[in-house]
Design goal:
The complex is a heterodimer. Chain A is α+β, with helices and mostly antiparallel strands. Chain A has three domains: 20-29 and 423-541, 2-Layer Sandwich (Aldehyde Oxidoreductase, domain 4); 34-114 and 178-254, Aldehyde Oxidoreductase, domain 4 (2-Layer Sandwich), CATH 3.30.365; 270-421 and 548-688, Aldehyde oxidase/xanthine dehydrogenase, molybdopterin binding domain (Aldehyde Oxidoreductase, domain 4). Helices cover 27% and strands 24% of the residues of chain A. Chain A is built from 18 helices and 23 strands. Chain A has a seven-stranded mixed β-sheet, sandwiched between helices. Chain A has a five-stranded mixed β-sheet with strand order 7-15-14-13-8, with helices on one face. Chain B folds into three domains: 12-46, no CATH class; 49-129, Roll (Ubiquitin-like (UB roll)), CATH 3.10.20; 131-209, DNA polymerase, domain 1. In chain B, 37% of the residues lie in helices and 13% in strands. Chain B has seven helices and six strands. Chain B has helices spanning 14-29, 33-47, 75-82, 138-145, 155-168, 174-180, 191-201; strands at residues 54-60, 63-69, 101-104, 107-110, 123-125, 211-214. Chain B has a five-stranded mixed β-sheet with strand order 2-1-5-3-4, with helices on both faces. In chain B, a hairpin with a 2-residue loop joins strand 1 (54-60) and strand 2 (63-69). Chain B is elongated, with a radius of gyration of 24 Å. Classes of the chains: A alpha+beta, B alpha+beta.
């Protein structure tokens, strides 16, 4: 079986992102920058009702506006609206302004349903409104998983805690909204898509437009972030194609920031009732939990493997011998959830890691020691020990609430697992080696900002004895051999072995054709020259033994809490993560930083807020949906656990999982009481301290 | 409000508002009520441009950009959709994300909040205008060296904000950088690297805090 070289020049070192020059100069063309010949602007008319039946849509007044080139309905005939923001129609015109005028001109006849529900807890009531006529009324029967004998086990426990830990709906909010430029001519469809999966867009468009896969080409040279929300063609992609067909011109249809909050995914909420007990020696013994959350109109269940469901892995990292877990998803009149960076794991980590700290406190144990006793993860054990030393845990830890003064400090930690990951074994790619020694790699994968292009260049340079800047990398085109969707921390473990395989074949063939024993490095150009006039084209695929699945990590947080204002300031985060064989240290660290910062937003700021009366998202923009800014970002330190023997793994998901739990535990350690609900806002801090009454919804 | 009588809306129109202003001014002056109102109306009539497309000339990155656009077109829209300058990005179109940051003179502004017609006559610099003769600017090079970008969509905005800061203050500290970048958002979480890049561009020596530790 193949193995990675032991001595490396580029792998496990730092190479600057090869597309950085294009990105820092504005030369990089993102999907929203595409200006296809004769392109039109596209826009979507969305429902202003959370529940309605659309009877008819009159597009004629819109079509009569000068500059409007096409208008299409989202669905033919009468149809149900299930949430505020669902698509009704779309227009294409010569300018954004023309489209805005056209949207206002469309006449919609609807039967408005005044009964709807956007709140999970209200939706669970027996008399709750139906999400749409015919929708299952009562909440689904909980899915129950039971091990051991929970009811017998609790009386055997030395200490038991109970808590109701809740997490909000979180919005992905990539900086570039969802959208495409689509050109549909008699030859077929070309879509420049802002996507994490070009193949999924191709398949989705072909299916929705009833044309062959071979008639659809999807191109994603640069895209502005996805975090799980950008797979498939989407309603906006299909509408752009239909508009293009009708207008006989390419249509660029990017969502507005408002649209983004309504219709293209989110992380489901969670409401976790947890009862956790341990024996006198500190061993976890019994776990009884009930969790529900909403995935919007969808009632999907599974989230552990990458979907957008509301179920979460419980009791997460800890194999409690007696467990009972009941879970159910609650449908509400809001946009569906989608996969969101480590689906299910950040809420699971927050709930369980909070419960772990609460139980440790009750047992009089240091929460870190309590974890070391109960976490079976060997790598995490090592990470906790390394991290504790670097962080100064033993020196800094004090009993909850012991910090003196008005501004209190506290520390906390939490662990993460990303049980999925691994590679897509179907990944393929090809390389063209030219007689002048230039070489180009083509893979049908996309670079969503994780440094995929650079990974390809680094692996190829290492294998061929060249420099990364000598490697031309082309990605983001379904005309190239198929690559994986960029999700689930699978991209790097999919493409690295594929490039390895291509390079092995390149060297083999080059050596055979040139007669040189070793075509690498100094011999490269001589070997290529012997190709004569015909370039060498080599096809390769993923091969086993060079990558692994599963990844974990632990994080430590230090916070300051102002007990008069309730303001939490995160001072420091230390992340210790298993990284397998590190491919490119520079971009790897960037991803870990990013995961931590996104987790910080989840801990302290982010929450989609719905209006019960209108069904609208009340904070569909950046002034009211708060995300971390540069001034909120603490001192971040990262320790990369190098395990080349494991091969290549992904890091995108595990890096964001434990942050909120670690911060929540640090806050509880600082103020001596638990804030059970994310985001930990100043109001919730003050309520937990008894300084203001808790917020009760009218 | 009764929508069937749109004339009633005139009670709040700009024209009648100006008329009432005229009345107040004239009353204060105790004379010439009608002529002041007429004067204002005339001046106002002369300033109305649009709603149809009008010629607009922008000075962008040292070159003249002549466009025929409606007066309601923003500077961002003009750059991105009426020329090929797509470096400035649209992230929110409402002055909250900073992806559209450009320099108006030396001042960083949100291009989505400026009408193109208002931006005439002042030198506009976009991210495309920073590199000279294929050489990256100091700030661009620092972003590359420090990996101060991931998906890169917010990057042009941050690069412009940091560029503007260094023009005003060549020796900023970390707090200055954070202040200068307070109006820019990044969802990939590249902030620590942006801070490092800005400080590197300002000539500050930096020490990396991360480390690789072998498992065994």
């Amino acid at each position: 079986m193949s193995s990675w070289p032991a001595e490396t020049k580029y792998i496990s070192h730092s190479t600057a992102r090869i597309d950085a020059p294009a990105k820092v100069t504005g030369r990089a063309r993102y999907s929203s920058d595409i200006q296809a010949e004769g392109w039109l602007y596209g826009m979507i008319l969305r429902s202003k009702w959370p529940a309605a039946k659309i009877l008819s849509v009159n597009l004629d007044p819109a079509r009569q506006i000068p500059g409007v080139k096409a208008a299409v309905v989202a669905r033919d005939g009468a149809f149900n609206i299930r949430y505020y923001g669902e698509e009704i129609a779309a227009v294409a015109g010569t300018s954004k302004q023309v489209c805005l005028d056209a949207l206002r001109a469309i006449e919609v006849q609807a039967q408005v349903r005044h009964e709807f529900v956007v709140n999970e807890n209200e939706a669970r009531q027996p008399d709750a409104a139906q999400v749409w006529p015919g929708a299952p009324n009562a909440p689904a029967t909980p899915r129950v998983l039971e091990n051991g004998s929970v009811d017998q086990a609790f009386p055997e426990c030395e200490a038991i805690i109970e808590g109701f830990y809740t997490t909000p709906v979180q919005l992905h909010n990539p900086m570039e909204t969802h959208g495409n430029t689509v050109s549909w001519t008699d030859e077929g469809v070309t879509a420049w898509a802002s996507t994490q999966g070009i193949s999924s867009v191709r398949d989705g468009l072909a299916g929705a437009l009833r044309i062959h896969h071979s008639q659809v080409r999807v191109i994603t040279e640069y895209m502005g972030g996805g975090f799980g929300a950008k797979f498939g063609a989407g309603a906006e992609g299909v509408l752009a194609a239909k508009l293009s067909r009708a207008a006989k011109a390419p249509v660029r249809l990017m969502l507005t920031r408002f649209d983004q909050a309504l219709a293209v995914g989110n992380r489901p909420s969670s409401f976790q009732k947890i009862k956790l007990g341990a024996l006198a020696d500190g061993t976890l013994h019994a776990f009884d939990a009930e969790n529900y959350g909403t995935a919007g109109i969808g009632g999907g269940a599974d989230a552990g493997g990458g979907g957008g469901g509301a179920d979460i892995p419980m009791p997460y990292l800890y194999p409690v011998p007696n467990t009972r877990v009941k879970q159910s998803a609650v449908a509400v009149n809001a946009g569906s959830a989608r996969a969101f960076r480590a689906p299910g794991n950040p809420p699971a980590s927050f709930g369980m890691e909070s419960a772990m700290d609460d139980l440790a406190v009750k047992l009089g144990l240091d929460p870190l020691d309590f974890r070391l006793k109960n976490d079976p993860g060997k790598i995490r054990q090592r990470e906790y020990q390394l991290g504790a030393k670097k962080f100064g845990w033993k020196e800094k830890y004090q009993q909850p609430g012991r910090s003196p003064g008005v501004v209190k400090t506290g520390i906390g930690c939490a662990g993460a697992a990303w049980p999925a990951g691994g590679a897509s074994p179907f990944t393929q790619g090809e390389a063209t080696v030219n007689p002048d020694g230039s070489i180009e790699f083509r893979l049908g994968v996309q670079d969503i900002g994780t440094g995929t292009r650079t990974v390809i260049a680094v692996v190829a340079a290492e294998m061929l004895g060249l420099k990364p800047e000598q490697i031309t990398v082309r990605v983001g085109d379904t005309n190239f051999p198929p690559g994986p969707g960029s999700g689930g921390s699978t991209t790097c473990p999919s493409i690295s072995p594929t490039v390895f395989n291509i390079c092995s074949k390149v060297l083999q063939q080059l050596q055979t054709q040139s007669g040189l024993a070793d075509a690498r490095g100094l011999n490269w150009f001589a070997a290529c020259k012997k190709l004569g006039v015909s370039p060498l084209v080599v096809h390769g695929q993923w091969e086993p033994g060079l990558s692994a699945d599963r990844a974990g990590g632990v994080q430590f947080a230090e916070v300051e809490v102002d007990t008069e204002t309730g303001l939490v300031t995160v001072k420091k985060i230390l992340g210790v993560h298993d990284c397998g064989l590190i491919i490119n240290q520079l971009t790897l660290e960037s991803q870990i930083n990013g995961g931590i910062i996104m987790g910080l937003g989840y801990a302290l700021y982010e929450e989609r807020i719905m209006d019960d009366l209108s069904g609208v998202v009340l904070n569909p923009n950046f002034e009211t949906y708060k995300m971390p800014g540069i001034a909120d970002v603490p001192d971040i330190e990262v320790v990369l656990i190098n395990m080349p023997e494991r091969g290549v793994i992904g890091i995108g998901e595990p890096a964001t999982v434990p942050t909120a739990g670690a911060i929540a535990n640090a806050v509880a350690n600082a103020i001596g009481v638990r804030v059970f609900s994310l985001p930990i806002t100043p109001a919730k801090i003050l309520a937990a301290l008894g300084k203001v009454p808790p917020f009760v919804k009218a | 409000m009764n929508n069937s009588e749109p004339e009633n809306l005139g009670a709040h129109s700009r024209r009648t508002f100006l008329k009432s202003l005229g009345t107040v001014a004239a009353t204060a002056a105790t004379a010439q009520v009608k002529s002041v109102a007429a004067e204002l109306e005339k001046a106002n009539a002369e300033k109305i441009i649009g709603p149809e497309a009008v010629p607009v000339t922008l000075k962008v990155n040292g070159e003249k950009l002549k466009l025929l656009i409606e007066p309601r077109v923003t500077l961002l829209d003009a750059l991105r959709n009426y020329s090929s300058l797509t470096g400035a990005k649209e992230g929110c179109d409402r002055a909250t994300c900073g992806a559209c940051t450009v320099l108006l003179g030396d001042t960083p502004i949100y291009a989505c909040q400026k009408l193109a017609i208002e931006a005439q006559g002042i030198e506009i610099t976009t991210v495309e205008g920073l590199a000279k003769n294929q050489r990256l600017s100091k700030v661009q090079q620092a972003f590359l060296d420090r990996d101060a970008l991931q998906c890169g969509y917010c990057t042009p905005g941050f690069v412009m904000s940091v560029t503007a800061l260094l023009k005003k203050n060549p020796h900023p500290n970390a707090a200055d950088v954070k202040h200068a970048c307070a109006g820019n958002l990044c969802r990939c979480g590249t902030h620590p690297r942006i801070l490092q890049a800005a400080l590197q561009a300002a000539g500050v020596e930096l020490v990396s805090k991360s480390e690789i530790v072998d498992y065994v």
